[in-house]
Amino acid sequence: MVHSVRCSLPPRIADRTWTPSSGTADLVSRVAERLADLDRRLGDRTATFDLLLARTEAVSSSRIEDEHATLDDYARALVGIRANGSATAMVGATAALRAMIDDAGQVGITERSVLDAHAVLMRDDPVDGPVAGRWRQVQNWIGGGASPRDAAYVPPPADDVPDAMDDLFAFLERDDLDPVVQAAIAHAQFESVHPFTDGNGRVGRALVNAVLRRRGLTSSLVVPVAAALVADRAGYFAELVRYRDGHVDGVVRLVAAAIGTVCDEVEYAALRLDELEQDRAAVHPAGLGDRVAHDSTVLRVLLADPVLTEAAITAALPPDLPWTDAVIDELVDAGVLRPVTERRHDRAWVASDVLAELDALAERIRAAAVPTPGRAVPGQAGPAAAAPEPGRASILSA
Fold first, then answer.
1. pLDDT number for residue 190
2. Which of 98, 151, 326, 352 has its CA 20 to 30 A from that of 183?
3. Looking at the domain covering 45-143+151-267, what would its CATH class be?
4. pTM score of the predicted model
């Protein structure tokens, strides 16, 4: 029987500084410039693109936590079919991510916004639903099975969580740190505090995008960082362990490299989606009527979300233009839509081509992020970035 457990107490970081190695500083600078440029060029796209990237990030983040579901399952979960618990979790993760990022751009990253995001993420969980949106009141641990005796990491006691999170929120209010550095450290610190009974990884990774939005590095893009991190889960978890041992450089480099990889693949995805939209413009279902048969904007409304539901169609179209089954049937016959439900009401369809591109985007990011000896780090010219220089600080210092 375990009578006592040794817990870890993460250092307070609200007022601490950190000096990166020259290689890391160069990487961070290049990645930040690349991301800001991409956001400027793609920021005027429709909200659809932002939604696609948010879903890619949420699904990838869930997969790091061993939540797996097909996109068809995801679509069914959107209309209340809960045959796959992982799909329901992914829907919650998408909503939580978007809410936290939106709040970050408007009011900042606050205790309320983080708790609300967790409430959205976990509200349908059969075990943790009752405590969704609350700091944990019990001791938790990582690894070790049913007992913390052999745990890989035991975070601070529940009584210390509010103070630790207050310290983190104070750190998040700072504007004197590079945004990428701040995002990486905030994520690692959040995971070290582990403030919830479950859902820490998904909320903590959402924090990366929230920091980038609050600091103005992005204005509309969601960066699917988790899609890169899931490519090397062991390496990602190892850097979190190193952070807890006082080594910051590794987790900063990891997050920066992930952002650099994602930027390259997101830009390509934008081009692919433009091509798909042009292909769709040639589809004019007769069911829309002669008045709008050649108005591609109507079709664009119908296909603004690759997961299409009856409720979304009704809400999006003008009152004088009711949609008909004939329209949907023609889109299905043309291969643009594919039904994923069999019931008569609250039906759902998916845009096969767009979802295929989402899968391809996640796979391209994963392939690009898989560590290969000697390969250049995304965002940095020349060979793989050098290790921290001897004598340079690699821990948080007062």
1. 98
2. 151
3. mainly alpha
4. 0.84
